[in-house]
């Protein structure tokens, strides 16, 4: 049995739609800032989530993501689920519109292989949504399959070849579950072409074209003993019709001001708590940077400080730390959440796929810039109190003395290096955290992702990785900031504003390079990586804990598409 089968012989129910023009003017402005600071390689995006702009397409078929579960695969095998997903793309107008939008959003620069892989993933997310809708039919034996046939046939019988395609679909079930009588009637009306079909070639074409259906002349084989129908062996192999996605078609609901307020509360609490817990690490890190050569390493610095100045010195600057990071958390987290969504909305679906990395970097950078204006005075007082323990007995008098000695404006002498440090740190932190958490969660089944413990564990691990990466990138600016804020040295007398800030930074940078070489800009890197990994892991962990308590986690804010809600209720 040899016959060539081209894509033209398959039923293509979705009209090709050319890619949309991306909103490059909007994207260019958002990309410019992070591109000037960091130029990372572009990462492929393979998420199943749908940009918020698609919500209007799917109407009212949305269900809270927290309700998502799947049917037993033993009842409805993956081949059945995925071919049913293809039928939804072919016969259900709402699903077809969504899939068409997904196709139109694909950047024209992508290779055919990447386009095919992405569309397979989109079809897989439809499959996950369909699988959810099969639950009511899973536990009732053959009666459930017969009921499902009746409802699908009632919806699609008037479509060209609809009943025959349903017969092909149900032939993917075991014989004892097949509704044999209606299947037989449907197949009797589907005349065979009189020519042999190459099932292997059809299987290859289906695998390459996610929205294709079996050719109209395909007739399943009937077993004389059981009366059941079955597809040829090549069409029963795993993955021929696609793979059920790990996540359904989903989108985030529109967020209101109260939600962003909860982001702020969660961020402020998480940041203040984590930074308070690692104040001893911060004290040691600062001393290693401001007094290079005095200590042989992190352990020696901690032991020497405790021995010579008392254990309380390891908690020096606690008040300034808590105050500063309350301001940090209350601004940077809701700021990033808002700016990322605004950037994605401006970029459009195609722009998000093509420019996701710079868009995320830009959102992190802009959120951090504003935050720097809030935390710079707190950081200046903290560093001065750590470097000079007798500077002030508490943070309030620390602010007063700092302003008295150099004027209120001197509290912002460290703004340029702090902004560089924090912008670099924030960009890398958010990018790496989002990338790591997405990559880890993508490997987990939907029911595992829904668990709070799993989500928090992913946040902890991704936060630690993001913290170390961000520390390495921003370390030179951190060293320079510590040297400027400590006072003394070649900058003695300059801190109150006697010299231009940029000149001050240049003078201190040259001093570091002259005295220690390029390695001087990485003084204390080991302790800062330890500090940063712990602090960022803790930040994201507690941020997610408090978001869970306030019901603003990703699952709480997301809806998924219940494709089969178009069928009448049982």
Written overview of the protein:
With 570 residues, this protein is mainly alpha-helical. It folds into two domains: 220 residues, no CATH class; 302 residues, Mitochondrial carrier fold (Alpha/alpha barrel), CATH 1.50.40.10. The chain contains 18 helices and seven strands. The strands form three sheets. A three-stranded antiparallel sheet has the order 2-7-6, covered by helices on one side. The chain has a two-stranded antiparallel ribbon with strand order 1-3. A two-stranded antiparallel ribbon has the order 4-5. A hairpin with a 6-residue loop joins β4 and β5. The chain is elongated and about 95 Å long. The N terminus is likely disordered.
Content of β-strand: under 5%
Secondary-structure arrangement, i.e. CATH architecture of the largest domain:
Alpha/alpha barrel
What is the straight-line distance between the termini?
Answer: 44 Å
Q: Which secondary-structure class do the elements indicate?
A: mainly alpha
Q: How big is the Rg?
A: 30 Å
Helix content: 55-70%
| Strand segment tally | 7
Strand order of the largest sheet: 2-7-6
Question: CATH homologous superfamily of the largest domain, by name?
Answer: Mitochondrial carrier domain
Assign the CATH class of the largest domain.
Answer: Mainly Alpha
Order of helices and strands: EHEHHHHHHHEEEEHHHHHHHHHHE
Structural domains: how many: 2
Separate helix tally: 18
Q: Can you tell me the residue ranges where pLDDT is under 50 for at least 5 consecutive residues?
A: 1-59, 489-499
| Major beta-sheet overview | 3 strands, antiparallel
CATH topology annotation of the largest domain: Mitochondrial carrier fold
Quick one: overall form? elongated
Average of per-residue pLDDT values? 80
């Amino acid at each position: 049995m040899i016959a060539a089968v081209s894509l033209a012989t398959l039923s293509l129910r979705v009209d090709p739609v050319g890619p949309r023009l991306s909103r490059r003017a909007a994207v260019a402005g958002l990309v410019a800032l992070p591109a000037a600071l960091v130029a990372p390689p572009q990462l492929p995006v393979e998420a199943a989530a749908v940009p918020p702009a698609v919500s209007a397409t799917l109407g009212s078929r949305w269900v809270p993501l927290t309700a998502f579960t799947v049917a037993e695969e033993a009842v409805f095998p993956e081949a059945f689920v995925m071919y049913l997903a293809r039928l939804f793309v072919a016969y259900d107008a709402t699903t077809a519109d969504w899939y068409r939008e997904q196709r139109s959003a694909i950047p024209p620069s992508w290779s055919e292989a990447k386009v095919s892989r992405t569309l397979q993933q989109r079809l897989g997310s439809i499959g996950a949504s369909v699988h959810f809708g099969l639950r009511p039919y899973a536990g009732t034996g053959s009666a459930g399959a017969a009921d499902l046939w009746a409802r699908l046939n009632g919806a699609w019988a008037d479509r060209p070849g609809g009943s025959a395609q349903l017969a092909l679909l149900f032939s993917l079930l075991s014989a004892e579950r097949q509704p044999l009588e209606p299947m037989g009637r449907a197949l009797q009306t589907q005349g065979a072409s009189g020519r042999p079909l190459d099932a292997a070639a059809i299987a290859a074409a289906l695998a390459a074209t996610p929205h294709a259906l079996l050719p109209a002349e395909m007739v399943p084989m009937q077993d004389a003993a059981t009366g059941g129908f079955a597809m040829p062996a090549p069409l029963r192999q795993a993955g021929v019709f696609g793979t059920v996605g790990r996540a359904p078609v989903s989108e985030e609901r529109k967020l209101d001001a109260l939600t962003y307020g909860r982001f702020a509360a969660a961020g402020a609490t998480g940041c203040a708590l984590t930074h308070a817990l690692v104040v001893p690490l911060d004290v040691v890190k600062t001393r290693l940077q401001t007094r290079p050569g005095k200590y042989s390493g992190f352990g020696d610095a901690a032991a020497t400080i405790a021995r010579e100045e008392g254990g309380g010195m390891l908690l020096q600057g606690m008040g300034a730390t808590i105050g500063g990071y309350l301001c940090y958390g209350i601004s940077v987290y809701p700021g990033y959440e808002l700016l990322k969504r605004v950037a994605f909305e401006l970029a459009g679906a195609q722009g998000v796929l093509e420019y996701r990395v710079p868009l995320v970097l830009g959102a992190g950078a802009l959120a951090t810039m504003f935050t720097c204006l809030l935390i710079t005075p707190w950081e200046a007082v903290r560093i001065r109190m750590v470097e000079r323990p007798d500077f002030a007995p508490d943070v309030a008098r620390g602010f007063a003395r700092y302003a008295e000695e150099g004027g209120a404006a001197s509290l912002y002498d460290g703004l340029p290096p702090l902004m560089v440090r924090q912008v670099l740190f924030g960009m890398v932190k958010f990018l790496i955290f989002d990338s790591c958490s997405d990559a880890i969660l993508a490997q987990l089944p939907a029911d595992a992702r829904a668990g709070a413990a799993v989500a928090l564990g992913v946040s902890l691990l991704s936060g630690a990785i993001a913290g170390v990466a961000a520390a390495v990138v921003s370390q030179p600016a951190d060293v320079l900031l510590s040297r400027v804020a400590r006072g003394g040295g070649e900058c003695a007398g300059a801190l109150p504003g006697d010299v231009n800030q940029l000149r001050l930074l240049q003078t201190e940078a040259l001093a570091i390079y002259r005295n220690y070489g390029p390695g001087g800009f990485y003084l204390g890197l080991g302790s800062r990586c330890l500090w940063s990994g712990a602090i960022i892991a803790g930040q994201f962990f507690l941020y997610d804990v408090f978001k869970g308590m306030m019901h603003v986690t990703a699952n709480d804010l997301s809806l998924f598409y219940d494709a089969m809600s178009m069928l009448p209720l049982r």
